[in-house]
UniProtKB/TrEMBL annotation:
It comes from Kumtagia ephedrae. The keyword Heme does not apply. This is Leucyl aminopeptidase. PANTHER family: AMINOPEPTIDASE, BLL6088 PROTEIN. Keywords: Aminopeptidase, Hydrolase, Metal-binding, Protease. One of its GO terms (molecular function) is metal ion binding. InterPro entries: M29_Exopeptidase, NicX. It comes from the Bacteria.
């Protein structure tokens, strides 16, 4: 994407995020990564009259795995203080799950993560319609006490929902202290720490993130009182187990966020390796009618588990019920207020 077009989509983003004249914005990058993002956001912010600068952290050695929650900001408290004083942080590093992000949000700074390839940002622009659907979903989820997920492949799992808030992601953010991720379009919460029980069968065509692969043969998870007690299957199950074992942290077997996707611009089939170099899978997390469960940390929701071992697993063709009322049936959203109009 050329820099002019990149600036235009960032301008749309900042308008959707309520940026106005005189607001203090900081774009955060590290090393040589995403400097073109900083340029595009800076140009867009200046057109809106924002007071803005680019904070660039030193490069860090590449990690061997996707270890969430560890960032270069940890060693720079004065940088964290500057970010806490801003109105909005545009995070081009990926601070999610870090204590620094939590402190910055708690200080009232809103945060937008933007790390996906520009072509994907352009294809999944935030919109009022998406926001309304996701906010309705968040409202519904926040009132629910029990979530049950089933599938034709044998998934039957129950999450008790008495502890954690519902979190919305609709790809822009205009409220103090609120975080969002561009692109996105889904809703989630977490089960009670000891309140997830049952079986999840990850089926062919479902997606493992951060592995960025489509599953070829079923992976059967057994979950008891909020912890994975068994993972069985073929090659894909072996990959998951080997990945988890490498963290040498039993808390990686905890249950993380759970929810469903609502973005018709996101396509299940588009995660073709090589097509979006550098992408971290926000498109498969967001596709309309997916049901996504996750394993590992729940500190993002306020829980005690801050393990760095995290997998997100969007699944097709599932059914999801809140307090026995259907929300998603066989991979299709069935609540009118959350449906997108085809045509
Ligand atoms: Fe996740």
């Amino acid at each position: 994407m050329d820099q002019f077009s990149f600036t235009e989509i960032c301008l749309h983003q900042l308008k959707m995020s309520g940026v106005h004249e005189g607001e203090r914005l900081i774009v955060l990058t590290q090393g040589n990564e995403r400097l073109d993002y900083a340029d595009a956001f800076m140009a867009a912010g200046q057109r809106l009259g924002a007071k803005m600068y680019h904070m660039r952290l030193p490069a860090v050695p590449p990690a061997g795995a996707w270890a969430v929650g560890k960032t270069g900001l940890a060693a720079m408290p004065e940088a964290v203080e500057a970010l806490k004083a801003a109105d909005m942080l545009i995070d081009c590093i990926f601070l999610l799950f870090s204590p620094e992000q939590m402190a910055i949000q708690a200080a009232g700074t809103r945060i937008l993560t933007a790390v996906e390839p520009p072509e994907l940002l352009a294809r999944m622009l935030p919109s009022k319609a998406l926001r309304e659907r996701v906010e309705f979903a968040g409202h519904l989820l926040s009132k629910a006490k029990v979530m049950r997920i089933t599938s034709p492949h044998g998934t039957d799992v129950t999450y008790k929902l008495n502890t954690y808030p519902a979190v919305t992601e609709y790809a822009c953010t205009d409220e103090p202290g609120r975080w969002d991720h561009w692109p996105s379009g889904f809703v989630f919460t977490g089960g009670d720490d000891d309140g997830v029980d049952g079986t999840i069968v990850v089926a062919p065509g479902d997606i493992l993130l951060p592995q960025n692969i489509y599953v070829r043969d079923p992976i059967v998870y057994t979950i008891e009182k909020g912890w994975i007690t068994d993972i069985r299957g073929g090659l894909d199950a072996e990959l998951v187990k080997s990945y988890m074992d490498a963290f040498d942290d039993p808390r990686g077997k905890g249950m993380s966020h759970v929810g469903w996707g609502l973005n018709p611009d996101a396509k299940w089939h588009r995660m073709v390796p090589g097509e979006f170099p550098g992408g971290m899978g926000m498109e498969p997390r967001s596709f309309y009618g997916n049901v996504m469960f996750s394993t590992g940390p729940n500190n993002e929701l306020g829980g005690p588990n801050d393990t760095a071992c995290h997998l997100d697993i969007p699944m097709r063709n599932c059914s999801l019920f809140l307090d026995d009322e259907p929300v998603v049936l066989d991979g299709d959203v069935v609540v009118k207020e959350m449906q997108h109009k085809r045509g």
